[in-house]
C-alpha cells in the first residue's frame, strides 16, 4: 500500500482533467474549492506539475471515507462467511463506509464489473485492485450483477 497521503489522493482526488487550474495548482481545496492560504492546505502529493491540496475539514471527511473502505475491504479478505453474501459485520462496515462516503460528498457507487450504478439497497462489496497508476478503490455488486433491462 502507498502511504496515507498517496492513498487518499488515489482514493478521493478527481482526475486532473476534471479539476480546475486552481484545484490542480493547490490554490483552492480540491474538494470544496475553499481558497487556501499559503501552507494552510494539506498537500496531497501527486505527479507534477500539479499539486492538489485539501482543506482540513475535507481531508478529514475524505480520510474517514478511505479508512472505512479499507476496514470493510480487510474484513472481506479474511471472512469465511462473506463469500456466501455479506455477513452481518460486513453489512455494518458497509453502512459506516457509505455514510462516511455520503458525508464526504462522493458520487454514487458504480460496479466495476457491469458499470451500472449500484442501487442504495443492493448488496455491495469493495474491490481493491492494482491499476497502472497504483491501487484502484472500486466496488462490485456483492452477488450477481443485475441484468441491464431490469434496472
Ligand atoms: Zn475543502
Ligand atoms: Zn464477513
Ligand atoms: Zn455489477
**SS strand fraction:** 5-15%
Shape: elongated
Radius of gyration: 17 Å
First-residue to last-residue Cα separation: 36 Å
**Oligomeric state of shown chains:** single chain
- Element order: H for helix, E for strand: HHEEHHEE
Please specify the SSE layout and strand pairing.
Layout: H1 4-12, H2 21-25, E1 42-43, E2 53-54, H3 56-78, H4 88-103, E3 124-131, E4 134-141
Antiparallel strand pairs: 1-2, 3-4
Helix pairs in contact: 1-3, 3-4
The protein binds zinc ion (3 copies).
Model description:
With 151 residues, this protein is of the alpha+beta class. The chain has four helices and four strands; from the N terminus they run H-H-E-E-H-H-E-E. Helix 1 packs across helix 3 and helix 3 (56-78) packs antiparallel against helix 4. The chain is elongated and about 50 Å long. The model has no long low-confidence stretch (mean pLDDT 91).
Task: Write a short abstract of this structure.
With 151 residues, this protein is an alpha+beta fold.
Q: Which descriptors would you attach to this protein?
A:
about 150 residues, alpha+beta, two-stranded antiparallel ribbon, two-stranded antiparallel sheet, about 35% helix, about 15% strand, elongated
Amino acid at each position: 500500500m502507498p502511504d496515507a497521503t498517496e492513498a487518499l489522493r488515489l482514493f478521493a482526488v478527481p482526475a486532473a482533467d476534471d479539476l480546475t487550474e486552481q484545484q490542480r495548482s493547490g490554490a483552492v481545496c480540491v474538494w470544496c474549492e475553499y481558497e487556501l492560504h499559503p501552507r494552510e492546505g494539506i498537500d496531497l502529493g501527486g505527479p507534477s506539475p500539479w499539486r492538489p491540496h485539501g482543506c482540513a475539514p475535507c481531508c478529514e471527511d475524505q480520510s474517514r471515507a478511505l479508512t472505512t473502505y479499507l476496514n470493510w475491504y480487510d474484513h472481506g479478505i479474511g471472512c469465511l462467511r462473506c463469500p456466501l453474501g455479506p455477513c452481518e459485520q460486513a453489512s455494518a462496515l458497509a453502512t459506516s463506509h457509505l455514510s462516511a462516503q455520503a458525508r464526504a460528498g462522493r458520487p454514487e457507487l458504480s460496479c466495476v464489473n457491469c458499470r451500472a450504478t449500484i442501487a442504495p439497497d443492493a448488496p455491495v462489496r469493495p474491490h481493491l485492485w492494482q491499476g497502472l497508476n497504483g491501487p484502484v478503490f472500486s466496488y462490485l455488486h456483492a452477488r450477481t450483477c443485475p441484468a441491464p433491462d431490469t434496472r
